[in-house]
């Protein structure tokens, strides 16, 4: 039983090594990333390929994620009440504002994008489903952090080293605490280049039927494309859509 569980764990580790920046990996790269023996890796890789979870390029001797994961992912999407409820609102918000819009959640003490609708601009902000970031930087992340229970907020801040990604990243813990209080009072969060230089973002909370924040909806745009009135319209729009999704989730 222990060996079986170990094999399953290793298979999961292999699958989670692939990312938007590592779409194809060789046996040697996986060995380097995971530190597993090449013989063990090869056995697990062969099993994943046979079952459709990985595809092998015999010429390049590399592996990539297989279609079986896509099919399973579509099942998850179709069965997720949040995603199915939010999708038409997300698309309508993208069309109204003409900018990229997202839904984010907290997973493993990070902000994670679980839905994304892309606008059609020559100059766009870049994101993707599965993208993560620390909870102390950017509108979406700060929003989710702000609505955690107070003891969880304090624990996160006490245990986290606030490292700057841009010159706008908040790295002072007292300032972050005040920012989180302000977010809860206003009901939304904004960022002016805290996570990505030159990008504005605004985010508002989505509540479930027990009035718990389960996600945040956000819009982002290059600062060069916004002004005060556009920013106000972004904030108003994300709050309205977040409220609409929350109302639908309550029934």
UniProtKB/TrEMBL annotation:
Domain of life of the native organism: Bacteria
SUPFAM superfamilies, per the entry: GAF domain-like, Winged helix' DNA-binding domain
Domain HTH iclR-type, residue spans: 5-67
Residue stretches making up the IclR-ED domain: 68-251
GO function terms (MF aspect): DNA binding; DNA-binding transcription factor activity
Example GO biological process: negative regulation of DNA-templated transcription
Function, as annotated: May be an activator protein for the gylABX operon.
Protein name listed in UniProt: Glycerol operon regulatory protein
